[in-house]
């Protein structure tokens, strides 16, 4: 009855986010979870067996890997805001932001398409 994905390579290199299929809460390993006392950097696989969704209380097996990690991309985005990004005109900035959002959206679409 296990629903773990067959391939483990990506998950082992950088533990992916896991989404609660009951309520949509996303467990982000780089952030951990304060409500349930999980310290940042705890991979989903290392959570206690009796760990439950902090939002709706669903058990661990309700969670599904989203296949992506949060830490590196978030860091890069912050860097962009710090260096040079602010010098661009508002229009260009918006174009960049919405452009990258659109790319992320496409990425999710392709993920769900494969699943
Ligand atoms: Zn939930």
From TrEMBL:
TM stretches of this protein: 95-114
Domain Rubredoxin-like: 15-66
Family matches, as Pfam families: Rubredoxin
Keyword Ligase set for record: no
Cofactor: Fe(3+)
Database matches in InterPro entries: Rubredoxin-like_dom (IPR024934), Rubredoxin_dom (IPR024935), Rubredoxin_ET (IPR050526), Rubredoxin_Fe_BS (IPR018527)
Keyword tags: Electron transport, Iron, Membrane, Metal-binding, Transmembrane, Transmembrane helix, Transport
Coiled-coil positions: none
SUPFAM superfamilies (alphabetical): Rubredoxin-like
UniProt similarity note: Belongs to the rubredoxin family.
Identification of the protein by name: Rubredoxin
């Amino acid at each position: 009855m296990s629903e773990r994905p067959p391939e483990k390579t990506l998950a082992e290199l950088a533990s992916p986010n896991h989404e609660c299929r009951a309520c949509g809460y996303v467990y982000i390993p780089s952030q951990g979870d304060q409500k349930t006392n999980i310290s940042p950097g705890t991979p989903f696989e290392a959570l206690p067996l009796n760990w439950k969704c902090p939002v709706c209380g669903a058990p661990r097996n309700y969670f599904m890997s989203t296949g992506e990690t949060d830490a590196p991309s978030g860091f890069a985005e912050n860097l962009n805001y710090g260096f040079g990004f602010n010098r661009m005109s508002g229009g260009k900035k918006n174009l960049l932001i919405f452009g990258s959002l659109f790319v992320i959206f496409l990425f999710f679409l392709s993920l769900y398409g494969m699943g």
